[in-house]
Model the fold of this input.
Amino acid sequence: MRATRIVLLGPPGAGKGTQAQRSTDRFGIAHLSTGDMLRAAIHAKTSLGRDVEAIIAAGKLVPDPLIVAVVMERIAQPDAKAGFILDGFPRTIGQAVTFDDLLHRQDAMLDRVIELTVDDTILIDRITTRARQARDRGHAVRADDNHDALKVRLAAYHEHTAPLVDYYRAQGILVSIDGLQPIDAVTQDIFLAFGEQAI
Ligand code: ADP
Done:
């Protein structure tokens, strides 16, 4: 069977993590969240973790070559052979171009890029609520889920990541979905992009 390779694009708080998990379950592919990978590296105090900790806490992007290397190593793992849904990568045109090139060399390409659209005012609300709920439940709050870092993350999204929408549209693989809909409706739209019904 041929692999399914999906990129999920959207600003912080758009619901990428939730939707990626659902697609993972449905399509039997690996969920690759670069944010989760980097946070795991920080937690494990690896040299990668030490290199990126301050950058992430500030809400800035880590350097392209570093994250490309992390992703390429991860997609070479056995659980990604059937395919993957990337959540948080690529995030710059440079990452996207390099990734296309590296996939191409493996005779592979992306099948779809799913963009979740949500406007900034809602995102700030969603993320501050997520941080408050985590704190109330006694869970750890992400170092970058605070007002200052969030502003930097949104600015980074608009400046560096939003241009990927046009980049992938030009390739004819972009599907834009309204991320303000209820969670199940978003899932339904994503599955429909693959010609499948959610229920
Ligand atoms: P968000 O909620 O902002 O989408 P993520 O969990 O995807 O957060 O990423 C958290 C942080 O990890 C980013 O703000 C950035 O510092 C770093 N990061 C994750 N993926 C990338 C990437 N592809 N390129 C550069 N930095 C990244």
Residues 99 and 105 are 10 Å apart (CA to CA). The chain has a mean pLDDT of 94.
